[in-house]
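Example record

The entry below shows one chain as it appears in the dataset: sequence first, then structure tokens.
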Amino acid sequence: MAAGATTLAVATNAGAQGKRRMQVPPLTCDVHVHIIGPPDKYPFIPDRAYTPPQASVADLRAMRVRAGNQRNVLVQPSFYGTDNRCMIDALTELGASARGVAVVADDISDAALADMDRRGVRGVRLNLATTGFSNMQAVKEQIALMGRRLKPLNWHIQIFTSLDNVVALAPVIETSAVPVVLDHFALAAAAKGPGQPGFEVLTRLVKGQAWVKLSAPYRISDHPPAYADVTPIARALIAANPAQMLWGSDWPHTTRAPGKGPLDIHPFLVQDEAATLDLLVDWAPDAKTRQAILVDNPARLYRF
């Protein structure tokens, strides 16, 4: 992974400052970003895994200019728990250019879900990777129950977990009442390639109810900035079903820094979002496929 920084920083390699490798289509959507507000207004949960710096709507807009996208999906991060106020307030500020994915309690009312829908929320996230939750039977039951509740809203379920857990959850994903979106390449290890155990299950799932975010290659590879070992995985997923692929930056690149406790400030990783977006030239050489991944697919799933 790239070295951390104590505040938001702009990378200075050719992707951000030099000639772009691709023409970014109008209405390109970055489907994975987080807004982190002032802690006195939006307090973190006490039992969080780490404490991040702030990342404002103004910071996000500046990143849009650097990367070249015009739309975003705001994803509720783990350190806010089920308090979605920061994300929803940011949706209000961003208006029609943004959608959201919330984290909710199991007993949330249908009225509360409908209110979130009116505010731009389009899905519910299960973050197993950060929280360390590993009771797969409970997760299966949650996916099945939540899917039935979300279907009338035309929402989806988003899951951040390992490829091993995706394999364990495959039966319930295949029969889910709503689409299931898997974060960050389903955390398939880039070094192991498409032949790794479980990858064939993943490619089968994307031909059905699963969607995959081709996002945050630094979370599955240790070879920046080209991330060449990610290319075979990305190409295999796109070949399996380009209509259910999405792209995301994972801005502002939160991480848990070694040697720091959960209440310490964990600096963001420095990443070049423009260069990461340009990797689609390698992953999807065909411009029509890139148009689908960057514009058409997210417009359909998130109802832009």
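Notes for this example: The mean pLDDT is 93. The chain is about 35% helix and 15% strand.
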